[in-house]
Specification:
The complex is a heterodimer.
Chain A lengths: L6 E8 L2 E8 L4 H8 L18 E4 L2 E4 L12 E3 L13 H9 L8 H14 L5 H7 L11 H10 L4
Parallel strand pairs in A: 1-5
Antiparallel strand pairs in A: 1-2, 3-4, 3-5
Chain B lengths: L17 H5 L15 E7 L5 E7 L1 H4 L4 E5 L30 E2 L5 E7 L2 H9 L2 E6 L6 H4 L23 E9 L10 E9 L2 E2 L7 E6 L5 E5 L4 H12 L6 E4 L16 H11 L3 E4 L2 H7 L2 E2 L2 E9 L5 E13 L5 H10 L10 E10 L13 H19 L3 H8 L8 H5 L16 H12 L1 H9 L5 E11 L10 E7 L5 E5 L8 H13 L6 E5 L16 H28 L6 E4 L2 E4 L4 E3 H10 L7 E6 L8 E11 L5 E11 L6 H20 L30 E5 L22 H13 L10 H13 L3
Parallel strand pairs in B: 1-13, 11-12, 16-17, 20-21, 27-28
Antiparallel strand pairs in B: 1-5, 2-4, 2-6, 3-5, 7-17, 8-15, 9-14, 10-11, 10-13, 15-16, 18-26, 19-20, 19-25, 22-23, 23-24, 26-27
The chains are: A alpha+beta, B alpha+beta.
Chain lengths: ~160, ~775
């Protein structure tokens, strides 16, 4: 049986929805997302913050959820790939350009890449190719060679 | 023939799973939840070579939540190979699901299943193992010597040609048309080496074993070879094939590492033992140590050339390190010669000497390029050495000697994969155009001239490499497909082909759509479920477009025939006067009916039947795709740092069924090759422990590291391929090592023989060159 003192009452915004649940305070954010919230779009590729497949937005910043404790999002706003939407509620411009440019191959790293790109474009809507490349350094992809990923992010600039 | 009149094929149709993947839909093995799922974990050997004297699992079994602990005592001892290849596999049967001996740091010792990952981990720590340590060997040349530790000393392994000398596979072949090197004006001999390299698919290996409502075992697994998985698990655990279903969901990359039965047997064993669903997933560290790698190799090549540019003789001796088990040991070795030596015409003598050697290091296996990567590093650097000596431009030297349309090579017949190869001649090539296009894009002539007169510590250079690969394994690979028509004129396409992120579901739908005159939106693809889809060997050997595509085309043609039959009845016309176009049956006189009308007529009205067909396909040849690659580099001769400024890759893959996806395949292959060239190598301690088993220490290229990689598709038409197509997925990985090595030579006059070209090695080579007065 889990000890009561190890539980934590977590309250946060997940993809715009107020979410409250009792969790083990030692739970990683990634486990919270995938297992407790059942949001499977966030992936584990390395578990040590190197590959970026587990990236989510916390208060607008892209973070590796495998490196964060779930309790760290208490009182914060979290967006996972399932919450990435365009202004009209449909596809987000990044999703559209990733699909159109052929930037999705196996797709395992795609949610993380889209999250990282979204964080950058929110902060810097006119990011240059060099800035995009630097921002995506934390997202490893072995399929695409990044060529089509980079053009997808470039094409999504300035779109809503 | 050309692709001009095609409507769906050769078009950048959007990849059919891209939408779901971009939205994070639950598509992968681990994205579905199973009630009562146990966590499986494996205890790994801390020793490079040891016998298990005693193993005590009693304390592990007492850990709360632990449901099973398996050791070699609990499982049938069945020698098999983990290589997911056609049956009978040409790899030695030298593996056991669990054994009483461990052969590398990271070999399986025991497996547990528990209610939680924590309980599973705790159980692992409580398994008491007493080992008898055995002497270990890590170098292939040491391992072949008399008296070296014998890694496979067990009596029941099969098809090991010389276990005493740790030789897992060997093959020698010679074409002799005269005295060796007699006609040569110059003879060159060098050795090139490649280290342990990891695939680094971002999705780690994972299998979930569960049971259906009749008690059959279902393996939901990240694999490139569902049908081979079913067969090998049945073999290793001694259960009937009919009791196993293998389901391949979306796969997060494979690159060959998932052409392997890596987790399925042990996960199945844990599920069978507990009667519960079990998930076994590798950590990233485990993926580095205990999955598969590229075969490290030393490739010695000796070749002779005449002053006029004729290559007189060529000898390749390749020694591959297969690690502790011989997965793909023979076939990778064969491809290192069969996919490379025929690239250039050799006038007199050809010799190939191949050895795959066991060592107490991680297990090598299939990896994109499959031996050709190792072979081309040597062959293409040697080409530049010869060109330099005879004063010929490397591009012109290649143009003069590359294998032309209609030409063959004795190597094709002599070197197959586990059996004799097939005789074949080149039936399509765009290599000349590829070389031209690449030269133009990189500005070869202009830059050659410019870089000839450089001074100062920063030097630039350009380099070229040409490559070929295969399209499937001739007379070995087989694929099949089934199609059925629905009331609305849509179709289900069932294929055994395993899309592992490559987009094969999409291109196979394009092939079917082209035949049936419809859009890919009207095709619903189901791939790789051994209960539902027909057989396919799987996604490897660059076979899917060529072999599986051939099966889909034949299937669609049969379906077309059945549609026209019904259409003829509806329109009251002769079948020969009908064709399929824009979702309709159209007659010569313009009369037409919709496909939906055809479907409904067949299902409910005329000679009631389901319009459905199946077809299989195999090939007698393996038409090579070709490439010309060009690299422009900058070398800091004071630090040894090499920077790639531009990389041009011109690809002849016949007709690109989907140019966008073909480009994507090539971009990824090339960058993987560039990453091999400048960065990657697994490192080991003196006792065989991997030292850099993480993305932090084993550096693969990120977006910021990436030079411009420019892929150009050069069309040709392969008569044996579906709509003129050949393969595209592997070839691109073979270019960067030689193209960059040749560019470095052009920049600063030194050759590099050992990958990766890290600053220390480059600097050492420059220093050595300076001592020689270069």
């Amino acid at each position: 049986m889990k000890q009561l003192e190890n539980t934590f009452k977590l309250a946060c915004l997940v993809n715009g929805k107020r979410t409250e649940l009792e969790i083990d305070s030692s739970r990683s954010l990634l486990d919270l997302i995938r297992e407790d919230l059942g949001l499977k779009g966030t992936k584990e590729g390395c578990g040590e913050g190197e590959c970026g497949a587990c990236m989510v937005l916390v208060d607008g910043r892209a973070v590796n959820s495998c490196l964060m404790m779930a309790v760290q999002v208490h009182g914060k706003e979290m967006v996972t790939i399932e919450g990435i939407k365009g202004k009209d509620g449909g596809l987000h411009p990044l999703q559209k350009t990733f699909i159109a440019e052929g930037a999705v191959q196996c797709g395992f790293c795609t949610p993380g890449l889209i999250i990282a790109s979204e964080a950058l474009l929110r902060r810097n809507p006119k990011a240059t190719l060099e800035e995009i490349k630097l921002e995506l350094t934390g997202n490893l992809c072995r399929c695409t060679g990044y060529e089509k990923v980079l053009s997808a992010v470039e094409k999504a600039r300035g779109k809503k | 023939m050309d692709a001009k009149n095609l409507k769906v094929v050769n078009k950048p149709v959007i990849k059919m799973d891209a939408l779901g993947l971009a939205c994070g839909e639950p598509a992968f093995t681990d994205d579905v939840e199973f009630k009562g799922l146990l966590t499986g974990k494996i205890l790994w050997s801390p020793h490079a070579h040891a016998r298990i004297k005693k193993i005590d699992v009693s304390a592990a079994l007492k850990v709360p939540g632990v449901k099973a602990v398996l050791t070699y005592k609990d499982l049938p001892r069945v020698p098999h190979t983990t290589a997911g290849q056609g049956y009978p596999e040409p790899s030695p049967y030298d593996s056991y699901t669990l054994d009483n001996k461990v052969r590398f740091v990271g070999d399986r010792v025991a497996a547990v299943a528990a209610e939680t990952p924590e309980a599973a981990k705790e159980a692992l720590s409580k398994i008491k193992v007493e080992y008898e340590l055995l002497p270990a060997v890590f170098d292939t040349f040491e391992a072949m010597k008399d008296g070296a530790p014998v890694i496979h000393d067990e009596e029941d392994s099969k098809n090991i040609p010389d276990a005493k000398h740790n030789i897992a596979a060997k093959f020698d072949f010679e074409v002799k048309n005269g005295e060796w090197f007699k006609e040569a004006d110059f003879v060159f001999e060098h050795s090139w080496s490649i280290p342990y390299l990891q695939h680094c698919a971002i999705e780690p290996h994972i299998t979930i074993a569960h049971f259906d409502n009749t008690g059959r075992l279902v393996l939901r697994t990240s694999t490139q070879v569902p049908f081979h998985v079913r067969r090998i698990v049945a073999q290793a655990l001694k259960i009937p094939v009919k009791k196993i279903r293998v389901v391949k969901p979306r796969i997060g990359g494979g690159f060959g590492s998932k052409q392997e039965v890596l987790l399925e047997d042990i996960t199945a064993a844990l599920a069978l033992k507990t009667g519960r669903p079990v998930k076994l997933e590798y950590t990233r560290k485990e993926t580095f140590i205990s999955s598969r790698t590229r075969h490290p190799a030393v490739c010695r090549m000796k070749a002779g050339v005449k002053k006029d540019g004729t290559i007189t003789d060529a000898e390749m001796e390749i020694t591959l390190n297969t690690g502790a088990y011989g997965s793909h040991a023979l076939t990778v070795m064969m491809c290192s010669g069969s996919h490379t030596i025929p690239m250039y015409r050799v006038k007199n003598n050809i010799r190939f000497i191949g050895r795959s050697v066991y060592t107490n290091l991680p297990v090598a296996g299939a990896y994109r390029g499959y031996g050709a990567t190792q072979g081309f590093f040597a062959w293409e650097c040697l080409m530049d050495m010869m060109a330099a000596k005879i004063g010929m431009d490397p591009v012109e030297f290649r143009k003069m000697n590359y294998i032309k349309l209609g030409e063959g090579s004795p190597v094709f017949k002599a070197m197959g994969e586990g059996r004799e190869g097939v005789e074949q001649v080149i039936t399509s090539t765009g290599l000349f155009e590829a070389i031209q296009k690449g030269s133009d894009e990189i500005k070869w002539t202009e830059k050659k001239l410019k870089y000839a007169a450089q001074s100062g510590p920063i030097r630039r250079g350009v380099g070229v490499a040409c490559m070929m690969q295969g399209s499937g394994i001739p007379e070995v690979d087989m694929a099949s497909a089934t199609m059925k028509m629905n009331e609305d004129g849509s179709f289900n396409l069932l294929v055994g082909a395993a899309d592992l992120g490559t987009g094969s579901d999409t291109i196979l739908a394009q092939i079917a759509a082209e035949v049936l005159g419809i859009k890919t939106d009207d095709i619903i693809v189901t791939s790789s479920d051994t209960d539902i889809t027909p057989f396919d060997v799987g996604a490897y050997a660059s076979s899917t477009t060529f072999i599986s595509g051939g099966a889909v085309k034949k299937t669609a043609e049969k379906v077309r025939d059945m549609i026209l039959e019904v259409g003829a009845k509806i329109l009251d016309q002769k079948k020969e006067d009908l064709r399929l176009e824009d979702g309709k049956v159209v007659a010569k006189d313009g009369a037409s009916c919709s496909l939906s009308e055809v479907a409904n007529t067949s299902l409910y009205y005329y000679n009631q039947h389901q319009i459905t067909a199946s077809a299989s396909h195999f090939a007698h040849t393996s038409p090579p795709p070709f490439q010309a690659n060009f690299a422009e580099v900058e070398v800091d001769t004071e630090t040894g740092q090499v920077k790639i400024l531009d990389y041009v890759s011109c690809v002849d893959c016949g007709t690109a069924i989907n140019p966008q996806l073909a480009e994507g395949q090539n971009d990824g292959a090339v960058l993987n090759g560039i990453s091999h060239t400048l960065s990657e190598a697994m490192e080991f301690s003196s006792n065989g422990t991997p030292l850099n088993a993480s993305f932090r220490r084993y550096k693969i290229f990120s977006a910021a590291d990436t030079p411009p990689v420019r892929t150009f598709i050069i069309p040709s038409w392969e008569p044996a391929g579906p709509f003129g197509a050949k393969s595209v997925s592997e070839i691109g990985i073979n270019g960067p090592l030689p193209a960059v090595a040749n560019a470095i030579y052009n920049a600063c006059g030194v050759w590099l023989f050992e990958a990766p070209f890290t600053p220390d090695k480059v600097l050492k080579a420059i220093q050595k060159g300076k001592n020689k007065g270069l």
